């Protein structure tokens, strides 16, 4: 790896770190590209070569901070274990996030259409696809038909995790996740499989 690659990675980390710091301190609306450049000790031209604007930069910084994209896990061999493992990964990512940062981002989405589009395209779509590997493996094993409503599964799961993490404050422990799988998600999948 050449020195220019390392330097570029260090520069990127500085820019993303400055973005997160300002986002937490003053919020999305008050944050400017000038302030990010100043804090990161980078030129605006350097920032714009990598990110098209503030919305894309903020989403990239949040993704980097939270490890947003879930790594694909090995096949555990059955649908129940696979869905539970996916939920545990989602839970770990959600509880590892700075709640103030996430809630501030969601609030800003209501009045900034560019940010809302970018978040939906990059982060929300990732959540919708979280169960795809588990469903694909279950279909290949013959446990489920291909015509499963994957978006419903992901949306329901995300809503329940989000509610516990940020609204009710109830525990997001393995007992809750196991109940969610056994009492809600597997019956939903089986019902859809029966309709297919």
UniProtKB/TrEMBL annotation:
DNA-binding region listed in the record: 32-51
Alphabetized Gene3D superfamilies for the sequence: Homeodomain-like, Tetracycline Repressor, domain 2
Pfam families, A to Z: TetR_C_11, TetR_N
GO molecular function: DNA-binding transcription factor activity; transcription cis-regulatory region binding
Naturally occurring in which organism (per UniProt): Kribbella pittospori
Superkingdom classification of source: Bacteria
Annotated PROSITE patterns: HTH_TETR_1, HTH_TETR_2
Assigned keywords, A-Z: DNA-binding, Transcription, Transcription regulation
Residues of the HTH tetR-type domain: 9-69
Protein name stated in the entry: TetR/AcrR family transcriptional regulator
